[in-house]
Amino acid sequence: MRVMKWSMIALAVAAGTSQLAVASSQEESKGFVEDSTLNVKTRAMYMNRDFKHGAGNSTSGTAGYREDSGVSLLGTFESGFTQGTVGVGVDAIAMGSARIDGGSGRRGNGLFANDSDGNPEKSQGKAGAAVKFRISDTVLKYGDQFVASPVFSTDDSRLMPEMTRGTLITSKEISGLELSAGRFTSMSAQTGMGHDSIAGKGEPGLTSANIAGATYAFTDNFTGTLATSDVEDYFKKHYLNLNLTAPLGEKQSLNFDLNAYRTKDQGKEFAGPQDNKIWSLAAAYALEGHKFTLAYQRSSGDTGYYYGVDGGGTVFLANSIQISDFNGAEEKSWQARYDLNMASYGVPGLSFMTRYVKGDNIDTGAGEGKEHEWNLESKYVLQEGPAKDLSLRVRYAVYRATDNYSVDNNDLRLIVEYPLSIL
User: Fold this and answer.
1) Burial code of 148-159, b = ≥16 C-beta within 10 A, e = fewer?
2) PANTHER family attached here (predicted)?
3) Buried-exposed string 250-263: b where 16+ CB fall within 10 A, e elsewhere
4) Other C-beta atoms within 10 Å of 273: how many?
5) What is the pLDDT of residues 151-168, one digit of tens each?
6) Of 48, 66, 357, 369, which one's alpha carbon is 20 to 30 angstroms from that of 395?
7) H/E run at residue 6
């Protein structure tokens, strides 16, 4: 699933910039109950993928389009840590979704799983919990959780997010440096209610994944990240990020963002042979409420970039957008993007984005493949009143490709979200 967005990249890069503290986090603990939080997020989503030139909806065997809609509720409870040298706490996750519209002939957008008759489920739900321990500024968490590592990232692009089970250690003992390491043994899909419901290319799903990473803030404006993963009987993956922001005055700045992956198969090769190097470089100029971005992405090797069994969000690349990731074998792609924050014009909470990406030189085995995609997006977040933080979002994409590579389609998504902090 192609979901890597600029906001996620920024969050991942910024992870190493907020570790400056005099006292350790555990020393400042107020207690298990006192530091607890309970958040509930409601999401409603309509999605329509309209295939062109008589293309069929391969998931249902019918021609035309996929269309469905639903609503979901996600509750997350995070306790504080008990006081003392070793703090103990628990986290809990519960989520559910209900179908509003959509039938067997229009299924396939990834909002719902199918029942035994091939129809989208009317409702779904799952839950999980984890125990956590903290010493100083180091936290060990075991159980069900969401993860946002560039080499292992749970996806949240539909109604309910993926959820993984395992152990994650995060350490922030050194100012400006964040270290992480983990081992995960199962992954639930966005439409899968079982703990081990995600699979890679029809093979047995996640076996085990060992990950490690480090993010360091060299300065307030320059950060770097290294990460690696070993997914048993699938592949080994390595990742590099460098992010530099250069202030050009009070209301101007220039940002450079480099992302790179190296993936190589191993063991039983459940995802098939994998041999890929892919990198992207983006340059963004910000002026008050305007941002102009240019990006270039290059894939090389015997295969394209593969991800999914290690989480549907594991694609921290500039040209991974609404429909395509532009990650085919030997593919070269270019992006032009424009963002507008209307707060500069007296309308806080309203934003617009448009971008165009073109890719070519794709090795399809049957000649050169080409693709291009145009996105248009608008979002409004209520700033005050009883529905404060309610957001309304429209996403539209037009995707076209050569017949030897992919299928043309138009993608429309309407998303309404309401986050509520109870504790």
Assistant:
1) bbbbbbbbbbbb
2) CHITOPORIN (PTHR34596)
3) eeebebebebbbbb
4) 11
5) 999 999 999 999 999 999
6) 369
7) helix 6-14
